[in-house]
Hints:
The chain has 534 residues and is mainly α. The chain contains 23 helices and two strands. Residues 1-33 and 97-104 have low confidence and may be disordered. It has helices at residues 24-28, 32-53, 62-81, 104-131, 137-153, 161-173, 190-194, 208-220, 225-253, 258-264, 269-277, 285-297, 301-314, 319-331, 339-364, 369-372, 386-396, 414-433, 435-438, 440-453, 464-473, 476-489, 506-528, and strands at 4-6, 14-16. It has a domain at 4-53. Helix 3 packs antiparallel against helix 4 (104-131), helix 9 packs parallel to helix 12 and helix 20 packs antiparallel against helix 21. The protein has a two-stranded antiparallel ribbon with strand order 1-2. It starts with a strand and ends in a 6-residue tail after the last helix. Helices cover 63% and strands 1% of the residues.
Amino acid sequence: MTPEAVTTGGPHPVELPAGARSGPGSAGSGNSGGRGVRRRWVDQQLTARVRRAVTGVPDVPVGLCIGVGLLGSCLAAASAFVGGNGRRVPWPGSGLRSLWPAHGNSAAQVAGIVGVALVVVAWLALGVGVLRRRAGVRGVLGFAVAAGAPLALAPALFSEDPWTYVAIGQLVDRGFDPYQVGWGMLGRGDYSANLSVFWRDSPSPYSPLALRLLQLIAHSVGGSLSGGVVTLRVLTVAALAGSAPLLISLTSAGRLSQAPVVWLVIANPLLLVTFLSGLHLDVLVLPLILTALVAHHRGHDIPAVVAAALAGQLKVTALVVAGFIVAGRLLTPHDGEPFRGRVRGAAGLTGLAAGTFIGINLGCGLGFGWLNALSIPGRANNVLTPLDALTDLFSAVGVGPGPAPGQAVATAPGWLTAVGLSIGALATVGLALRVERVGVARAAAYSLLALTLLNGVVWSWYFCVPFVLLVLFGSPREQMVVVALSTLLVFSIRPDGAGGPSSGLRVAALIGDGFFLAVYTTAARVVVHRPHSR
C-alpha cells in the first residue's frame, strides 16, 4: 500500500501512512508497529502545524540573527567585565569595573540578562528560518560562533562553580581531604572573597577522577583563581569541539537534517550560557555519553560501556547509559542468538562497566567518600526543584516548615527526596525493560530527567545532556519541549550565579514554585499526549 498525501495548508504536505487512520483498535491492541505508525503520523501532523503557526512570522535574515546574537553576547560579556558576575577576580580588562557607576553590580546584572535575552530572541528567529529551510548549517554555525565567542573570552557568568572547582583542586593539592572539609581551610584572600559560602564548610560531592582533574588544573596555575577559570574555559571549548563530530555521526546515522540539530544543540543558548560561560563540569560528560552512543550504534558495546562508566565517574547518574546498553544486550535478540548467550554477554558488559568505574575510583586514591557527599547539593534549594517547590507551596498554607533563615524557598525533607529518587529508580527500571522499543538513548534521556527532577536539587545545566539526547533521538514533540524549556531555563540563574529570588522576595519565590511546576506538568503532557482517533 502506498502512503497518501494529506494537505496541511502549509508549503510541505505531510504523508499519512496507510492504516494510520485505523482508529483506536490498532493503537491500543498491543501491536507496537501500529502504535509506531500512528505516533509517526501524529508527529508529522504536529510538524505541519508548527510550520503553519510560523507562516505569518516575517522572515528574519540570517545575517541579522547573527548580528543580534553577537550584540547580545557582547553585552553579556561586557557585564561580566564590570562586575555582573559578582566576583572580584583579576581578569584581563577587569579594570573596566572602575568605570561603572555606584551600585553598578546590579546594573551590570541587568545588562547581562538583557544580553542573554537578545541571544535567545535571535536564536528563536533563526529557528524559524531553519524550520522553513532558509537557514542552513553554515548560517547556524555562524550564529553559534558569534553568540559564543564573546562569552568564551569573558569571565564566567551565570555560575558560582568555576571558582569553587579551582578551590577544591587546591584543597587536594595541599593534602586536605575534600570529602571531609570545605574550601574554608584555604583561609582568606581571593578564595573567601569570591567563592560560594555554601561550599565553605561542605564536603565535595565530586568523584575522585574529577578531583584529580581539578587538582591538576589548580597545581598548573599555582592556585590562581583567574588562571584556573581560564584553564576550565579551554577544557570546556575542547569538550564542546570534541562533541561536534560525534553529533554529526549520530545525526548521519539517524538520517536527520543537520541544520535543526546544530540549531538545537550547538547554537542553543542554554548550552552556551551554562556550559561555555558557566563552565560546569557536566560539559565533560557530554562527549563521553555521545562516544558511548556512537560505539553502541556501530555494534561496539565494549567501548560503549567503558565510555559510559567514565561518564559516570564525572556524574554518577550517567551510569544509566551503561545500564541501558546492558539491558539492550540482554533483551534484544541478535541473529537468532540464544537467551543464554545474551545473558553471558550482558553479564560481561556489566562486569566491565563495574570494573572500569571501581578501578578508576581506586586508581585515583581518594576513596569512596564522594558517595556519602552526593546528598550535599540537595541542601541548596530553588524554584526549579519540584520537590522543594511542592514543599514550599504546602508550607505557605501552613503544612510543614517554611524556608530556613536567609532562604526564600523551603527545602524538601529527606523522606520526600528518598521517595522521589525511589520513583526515579523505578522509572529507570521500567525504561530498561522497554529499552528494545524505546531505544537506549531515549531511555537514558528520560531516566536522567526523572532522576534530575525527583532529586533534592535541580539546576538548569542538569537538563543539557538529556536535552541533547532528545534532540538526536526524540520525536518532534520532544524537540519542541526542548526549545520551550531551553528558552525558559536560560533565565533561571542570575548572572552572579545565584538561583531564584533572594530571601526577601517570598512572594516571588511562591510564584516561581507554581510557574515551574506548571511548566514541567505542561511539558510532560505534551510529550505523553495520545491523539484521539479521527
